[in-house]
Amino acid sequence: MLLTQAELDANALDPETLRLAVQQVRVNGFVVFEGVLPSDVVDELHEDFMRLFRDYTAATDDNRGTNRYQTHLPFAAPFNAPQVITSPFALPVIKALLGDDCVCQYFASDTPMPGSEYQAVHSDIHRLFPGMPVAPPTFAVVLNVPLVDFREDNGPVEIWPGGTHLMPEDANMHELAESMDSKPCIMPRGSLLIRDIRMWHRGTPNRSDAPRPNMAMIHARHWLRTSYPPIGIPQETYDGLSEDGRRLFRLEDIGGTVDRFP
């Protein structure tokens, strides 16, 4: 979705835009707000991310397939900028889907480097109620923030929209995906991709000459528990967050330390 200049100037979604965005996630599995983060914010995020990423890749092996790295991010500037963690565009959609008491429980990235390969088609979470004949309402969403343009050649995430997040019964995902429509998420840097965590997707090969970084956050209903490492947030940092920020991260490691490579 392209937001209007009035929405961008006001840092607020029009009620009709919010309604449509929520419906897109509920019915189609995802929505994209294209290029809404200011260029200077994205520049700083990209510069600091790449500095950390170069150190990280020099110290460890790929961990999400060939030449593909998952990296947990430190809860510190510039990554915890208000435009990112309490986005006035993404957060209203997330709250409408998950409730005002939702939490953020994952603060990381997935970055394919040149030479990366296709991932297997997958969902980002296990089935909560195996055998349930109907799909439960949305209980978690992933927010992706591309730090460079996602192009055909640099490994954009490929998604299977239109209901894969609503599959009520066990299905052979890999067999079905081959015969179903999918699409690469082509979008400019600084966009916001909000997708139901159950949606089928996969990483694609990066055929460019540079990494394709993005930030990833998982927001969930407060009762959902996952095995992700807790986000270390110093007390002073937590106290300095907005009310929305404190509420989103209230179940993380408040008073903990910021690890360079959590």
Reconstruct the topology from this structure.
Elements: H1 5-10, H2 15-28, E1 30-33, H3 39-59, E2 68-72, H4 82-85, H5 90-98, E3 103-112, E4 140-146, E5 158-159, H6 173-177, E6 183-184, E7 192-196, E8 201-202, E9 214-220, E10 232-233, H7 235-239, H8 243-248, E11 253-254
Helix pairs in contact: 2-5
Please describe the structure with a list of short key phrases separated by commas or semicolons.
single chain, 262 residues, alpha+beta, Jelly Rolls, six-stranded antiparallel sheet, three-stranded antiparallel sheet, 8 helices
Main-sheet strand order equals 1-7-4-9-3-2
Largest sheet: 6 strands, antiparallel
Sum up the overall morphology in one term.
Answer: globular
Give the second-level CATH assignment, the architecture. Sandwich
Could you name the CATH homologous superfamily?
q2cbj1_9rhob like domain
Protein model, in words:
By secondary structure, the chain is of the alpha+beta class. It has a single domain, classed as Sandwich (Jelly Rolls), CATH 2.60.120.620. It is 27% helix and 18% strand. It has helices at residues 5-10, 15-28, 39-59, 82-85, 90-98, 173-177, 235-239, 243-248; strands at residues 30-33, 68-72, 103-112, 140-146, 158-159, 183-184, 192-196, 201-202, 214-220, 232-233, 253-254. A six-stranded antiparallel β-sheet has the order 1-7-4-9-3-2. The chain has a three-stranded antiparallel β-sheet with strand order 6-5-8, with no helix packed on it. A two-stranded parallel ribbon has the order 10-11. Helix 2 crosses helix 5. The longest helix has 21 residues, at 39-59. It is globular. The model has no long low-confidence stretch (mean pLDDT 95).
